[in-house]
Write a structure and sequence with these properties.
Order of helices and strands: HHHHHHHHH
Shape: globular
Distance between the termini: 48 Å
Largest sheet: none
Structural class: mainly alpha
Helix content: over 70%
Number of domains: 2
Number of helices: 9
Oligomer: single chain
Strand content: under 5%
């Protein structure tokens, strides 16, 4: 149950402001919300099954401690990625399929290589419990994209997207740092390393936020 809840929470955080959540908002404006949710569910079941199988396989070919360190680093990267945000690149355009298959196919391909799929791979490698991670990440996608549909249809712009992104990003980064502290050798944690690491992290946060501001500023012109 702990692995299920952890997987659910991580994917909910990863999905905040993600391309697939934006996709849920776009489709909800065009199709019935039940159709959108069923399409998201179908796509997520198969996509995340693939992800947990990949993550589970990694534990058989790479020592577990290396995978745990890589997973911790990946959580920090996911946090920075969350601040950067995503934009739709035509995935929400109409196709010749029925609404259900339009949503399912668009979500399946939008998730390939996306940070929620990569987070699922990292969680499967970290916990080595395929079923719990699969069910948890699938449930997390449904919760996050359900929120996206509600925001898109009912609440509009009343929820500050920037604040949600930063909250999710900082939680991700915090878990990444905790993971590094747990799995890296204790003699690495000298004062210069800690100060240098925090300085680099702050610079990355500033850089990602700055360039994201420039990107969104250009897009609004």
């Amino acid at each position: 149950m702990t692995v299920f809840i952890a997987s659910l929470l991580f994917v909910v955080l990863a999905e905040m402001g993600d391309k697939t959540q934006l996709l849920a908002m776009a489709f909800a404006a065009r199709y019935p919300w039940r159709t959108v949710l069923w399409g998201v569910f179908a796509a997520t079941v198969f996509n995340h099954l693939f992800a947990v199988v990949v993550g589970n396989y990694l534990t058989r070919v790479i020592p577990l401690e290396y995978i745990q360190i890589a997973a911790a680093v990946s959580f920090i990267i996911f946090g920075l990625w969350t601040i950067r945000g995503d934009e739709l690149s035509g995935e929400d355009k109409a196709t010749g399929y029925s609404p259900f298959w339009t949503v399912a196919i668009a979500f399946f391909f939008a998730e390939m290589g996306d940070k929620t799929q990569l987070a699922t791979i990292a969680l499967a490698a970290k916990y080595n419990e395929l079923l719990a991670v699969w069910l948890g990440t699938t449930a997390g996608m449904m919760v996050a994209d359900g929120i996206g549909i509600i925001v898109g249809i009912v609440l509009g712009k009343s929820i500050p997207e920037r604040a949600v992104k930063w909250f999710a990003a900082l939680v991700f980064i915090a878990f990444g740092i905790i993971g590094l502290y747990q799995y890296l050798p204790r003699d690495i944690w000298t004062m210069p390393v800690v100060i240098g690491g925090l300085a680099i992290l702050l610079l990355l946060l500033y850089g990602v936020s700055f360039f994201n501001g420039m990107r969104t500023g250009r897009g609004s012109r």
